[in-house]
Amino acid sequence: MSEYDGQTYRPKYHEDLVHSEITLPPNAPKEYADRAALWNAVELSEKGQNSQLARMLKASLPNEWSYELAEEVVRDYVQRNFVSKGMCADWAIHDSENDKGERNLHIHVLLTMRPLTEKGEWAAKTKKVYVLDENGERVPLIDKKTGRQKVDKRNRKQWKCQTIESTDWNSREKAKMWRKDLADTINATNEQLGIAVRWEHRSFKEQGIDREPTIHIGATANALERKGIQTERGNINREIIKHNMMLEQAKAMLELAKQEVHSAQYAKIKIAAVSVKNEVLEMIGRVQEKMGRLALPIVSAKYLAKISDRDKVQDINNAKSFLERNSIATFEQLEKYKTDKGKEFDRREQIFIPKWRRLEQLKELAKAYANYEPYKAVHDMSKSLSGLKKLKYDKEHEHELTMYENTRADLKTLLAEGEKITPKAWRTEKEQLEKEMPELRSERARACHDLAFAEVISYNKANLERVEQNESRQHNRQQGRTKRREEEI
User: Fold this and answer.
1) Cα(457)–Cα(321) distance, rounded to whole angstroms?
2) Who contacts 450 (Cβ-Cβ below 8 Å, separation ≥6)?
3) Nearest to residue 295, comparing CAs of 286, 276, 88?
4) pLDDT number for residue 1
5) Per-range mean pLDDT, top range of 51-55, 132-136, 401-405, 474-478
């Protein structure tokens, strides 16, 4: 809650919270890990009515990412670009959905504007520095009337000063750098995942694309547009979209084809739900009638957070196949499935995670040894020499010998205490694990998807009950109003 205006601020209703976190630099007070404490302290540090309290960054993430991956990547991005520079970062990941059912995995990042001192106190946003001439000397402040250098009340000479930012956080170059780093980070992650789509931080103009971008509408205009009220900024965007229609034609045709396929599947599922005596399928049929597809339990879903293709889990046809494949007809059977499969998944994790971590360590060791190996040969040669030959050799290979010490130290940091450097054994172990991992990953992914289906179906049962209870209460209230009007008449 804000101590300034007494209001409590929460995410928008249409944005489902996936993860939220506050990341602090080392010199920040520990109590700032509490959101209310941090932003109340920020507000108290500002005296001007128009002071900027925070900088906000909002950016989309690939919808193909799992929530766990998004959390890991965003945490690293925020730490590197903002927190390591002295900012406090309050960030969150959301998975919103528009009226057409289109997903948008994205992040919000709130950043503090003032730097922190070593004692954890808010420092000034700006500072005054002397103006220097070409010789590095201070420039006198001249009195226009006398033509002499100004002096203060204590008869001290005065010098020209200028106000500059305490940090470079407000520069446009920084903003461009942050955008580029986010695009590079997303592209590097996508490359590892085998996702071919590339993200671009540059504008259409910078890319040489003859296409007009839409303008930012803003929260107020956006709310009016959602209610069907046209706004000036919305009309501008509509004109821009008309100009870009040729480029969007292919996408529109693809979306139309998807809708036609979806409608056909929709009808088949509805018939199947009615014909089969299955209480879980009947519940899914009612969800389909009211909402079109299954809703996602964002925060409390343990297994849903581990998968990337969440749209498949929302598809009713896929949910029906899951139930048939596992012979689930009652909610009691569904709960038993979740319990049994959950225990089995945990047992698999106890096997998978240590092997996965070891494989990642072996990959790091392989890289570190590849850096170390060329310099080891130089070191071995130096060690085999003596006297003047050794002195001459060491002088000629001073850089290589220094790099030997540095790369050996890097390699040692990856080893357990007392562990020896055994590249052949590492290579053999790595090759063996690489053979095992595909099957282990495949088994883990299948189990994860099935348990995610179970989570989603259970959530929709509870969610449907809430929706129907609300509808019943509204119906009863409406009947009560009608009855009172009739009695008054």
Assistant:
1) 13
2) 322, 326, 341
3) 286
4) 61
5) 401-405
Could you give the CA distance from residue 339 to residue 343 in angstroms, rounded to a whole number?
A: 6
Please count the structural domains in the chain: 4
Residue 105 contacts residue 60 (beta carbons within 8 Å): yes
Per-residue pLDDT for 329 more than 70? yes
Rounded to whole angstroms, the Cα distance separating 452 from 473 reads 32
Cα–Cα distances (Å) from 319 to 273, 281, 293, 331, 336, in that order, read 12, 9, 10, 14, 17
**pLDDT tens readout for residues 69-84:** 999 999 999 999 999 9
Q: How many residues does the chain have?
A: 489
Looking at the structure, tell me whether residues 16 and 105 fall in a common domain.
Answer: yes
- pLDDT-derived band at 272, boundaries 50, 70, 90: very low
8 Å CB contact between 248 and 287: no
Contact criterion met (CB below 8 Å) for 419 and 358 = no
pLDDT confidence bin for 246, thresholds 50/70/90:
very low
User: How many other C-beta atoms can be found within 10 angstroms of the C-beta atom of residue 272?
Assistant: 17
Asked if residue 426 belongs to a domain, the reply is no
CA–CA gap between residue 294 and residue 266 (Å, rounded)? 12
Q: Using an 8 Å Cβ cutoff, are 369 and 415 in contact?
A: no
How does pLDDT run across 382-416, given as a tens digit for each residue? 999 998 998 999 999 999 999 999 999 999 998 88
Domain boundary among 243, 269, 296: 243
| Assigned domain for 37 exists | yes
Distance CA 458, CA 176 (A): 44
CB atoms within 10 A of CB 350: 9
**Under DSSP, is residue 199 helix (H, G, I), strand (E, B) or coil?**
coil
